[in-house]
Design a protein that fits this description.
Elements lengths: L57 H6 L3 H7 L23 E2 L3 E3 L14 E3 L9 H5 L1 E2 L2 H8 L1
Antiparallel strand pairs: 1-4, 2-3
């Protein structure tokens, strides 16, 4: 099998692991809490996008989409309704600092000997966090004690 002419000799389609070839966190506006850019994972979509959309075949692409088809695909914006009975939840129930990965005392191996659910924060994983992990935040114990008194 031959390599395409556009591929430089010796690269063989490999990704570069050099720091100068990677966009560094200080050069972006996104702070994901990882030191090494290569620790950042990729979380693909959970479902295929555009599977049944018009234009996925070559014949549909040649034919083009009519204005009526495009208008039929549009979804109206949800109406803005302001509910007067909304309770503002400003009770410091959620901390501002996100927790990292949670790991059980026995590091997730073996049978649980602890009757309560106990886990320790071992830091933010480089990959994308699941919704459950992203929802966990650190709440200061001191602020909890102040609220009780």
């Amino acid at each position: 099998m031959t390599m395409p002419d556009s591929t430089p000799e010796g690269s063989e389609g490999e990704y570069s692991l050099d720091d100068e070839d990677q966009l560094q966190p200080e050069d972006t506006l996104v702070d994901r809490g990882v030191d090494d850019v290569l620790d950042e994972g990729y979380s693909p979509p959970e479902k295929p996008l555009g599977l049944n959309a018009f234009g996925t075949t070559a014949a549909e692409q040649r034919e083009g989409e009519t204005l009526d088809q495009r208008l039929a695909e549009e979804e109206p914006d949800p109406a803005f309704e302001e509910d007067e009975n909304v309770e503002i939840l400003d009770d410091n129930e959620v901390g501002r600092q996100r927790s990292g990965r949670l790991l059980a005392e026995n590091e997730g191996v073996g049978e649980d000997e602890e009757k309560d659910l106990v886990a320790f924060d071992i830091g933010i994983d480089g990959g994308a966090a699941s919704a459950e992990e992203a929802a966990v935040h650190i709440v200061d114990e001191e602020s909890d004690l102040d609220e009780l008194s």
